[in-house]
């Protein structure tokens, strides 16, 4: 575990997230995030975009894809309703020897390393937690840890964004925070061609006939304002393929119906043609 010393306090840093993602969505969304994070002069600094959309449309995938083009050090912090200010900054941990060690969060580690931090599902956090990040999200670009008694300034190359679900199970982010989380980038459901490309990328061995059934089903759901997403489509396709693999006598249509019922419940069945 990497360590640094700031103002005499030793901090243990978090590990970066490292996994493979394949973004095959709109290139305009990629351009918007890149523009937000671009630095054009010595006195300039990155903006803090918020990516908004329904669960499962690819917000985190988009953010991570673009983040990896800026830095190898990308950190994802999963926000919840229980997230505390100290979780976002520095957490004290008592060892077996009854000594206190200080662990830097994904946010602070990215600040120190000059990496990128993605606050995933940021509007699940309370205002108290957001308030601890207020000075980081404007031109001051620092956080203060009451626990460790230090102030930490962000590296010039540090970047941050937050994803936000457009649903009812979230908090209202206060205006003074929203004004710091700019620009607002909205991610909508893909069109039929884009959904087919996403499915093919994630399920390269799937039969195209199955993927066509998925795309038609999803597009019908989108037209009727259902919350079905491409993530649901991938899960339906995977379950359908596994069902056929276990029983090669079952028809594709029956396996497809079973998959929809298992993934989405009875509500999904009304969009079967």
Task: Looking at this protein, list some descriptive labels.
4-stranded mixed beta sheet, 273 residues, single chain, 5-stranded parallel beta sheet, alpha/beta, 11 strands, 11 helices
Give the spatial strand order of the biggest sheet. 4-7-10-3-11
Share of residues in helices: 25-40%
The Cα radius of gyration reads 22 Å
| Low-pLDDT stretches | none
User: How many strands appear in the DSSP assignment?
Assistant: 11
**What is the 3D shape?**
elongated
Q: How do the SSEs run, as a string of H and E?
A: EEHEHEHEEHEHEEEHEHHHHH
Residue fraction in strands: 15-25%
Separation, N- and C-terminal Cα atoms = 54 Å
Structural class: alpha/beta
Number of helices: 11
What's the average pLDDT? 93
Main sheet record: 5 strands, parallel
Can you offer a commentary on this structure?
By secondary structure, the protein is of the alpha/beta class. The chain is built from 11 helices and 11 strands. It has helices spanning 27-37, 59-70, 85-88, 106-113, 127-131, 175-178, 192-202, 208-223, 230-246, 252-264, 266-269; strands at 3-6, 9-12, 50-53, 74-78, 90-94, 100-104, 116-120, 142-145, 150-153, 159-165, 184-186. The strands form 3 sheets. A 5-stranded parallel β-sheet has the order 4-7-10-3-11. Strand 5 (90-94) and strand 6 form a beta hairpin. Helix 1 (27-37) crosses helix 2 (59-70). The termini are far apart. The model has no long low-confidence stretch (mean pLDDT 93).
Provide a quick synopsis of the model.
The chain is built from 11 helices and 11 strands. The protein is of the alpha/beta class and 273 residues long.
């Amino acid at each position: 575990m990497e360590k640094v010393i700031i103002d005499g306090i030793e901090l243990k840093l978090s590990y970066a997230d490292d996994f493979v993602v394949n973004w095959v969505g709109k290139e305009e969304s990629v351009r918007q995030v890149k523009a937000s994070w671009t630095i054009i002069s010595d006195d300039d600094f990155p903006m803090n975009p918020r990516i908004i959309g329904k669960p499962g449309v690819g917000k985190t995938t988009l953010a991570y894809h673009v983040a990896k083009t800026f830095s190898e050090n990308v950190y994802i912090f999963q926000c919840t309703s229980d997230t505390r200010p100290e979780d976002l900054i520095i957490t004290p941990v008592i060892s077996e020897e009854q000594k206190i060690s200080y662990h830097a969060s994904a946010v602070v580690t990215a600040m120190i390393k000059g990496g990128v931090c993605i606050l995933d599902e940021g509007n699940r956090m309370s205002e108290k937690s957001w308030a601890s990040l207020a000075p980081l999200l404007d031109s001051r670009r620092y956080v203060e840890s009451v626990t460790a008694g230090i102030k930490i300034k962000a590296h010039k190359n540090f970047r941050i964004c937050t994803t936000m679900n457009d649903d009812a199970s979230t908090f209202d982010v206060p205006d003074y925070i929203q004004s710091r989380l700019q620009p607002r980038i909205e991610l909508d459901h893909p069109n039929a061609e884009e959904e087919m490309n996403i499915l093919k990328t994630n399920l390269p061995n799937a039969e195209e006939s199955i993927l066509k059934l998925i795309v038609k089903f999803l597009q019908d759901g989108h037209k009727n304002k259902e919350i079905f997403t491409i993530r649901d489509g991938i899960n339906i396709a995977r379950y359908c393929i596994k069902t056929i693999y276990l029983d090669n006598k079952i028809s594709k249509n029956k396996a497809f119906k079973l998959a929809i019922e298992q993934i989405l419940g009875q509500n999904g069945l009304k969009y079967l043609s």
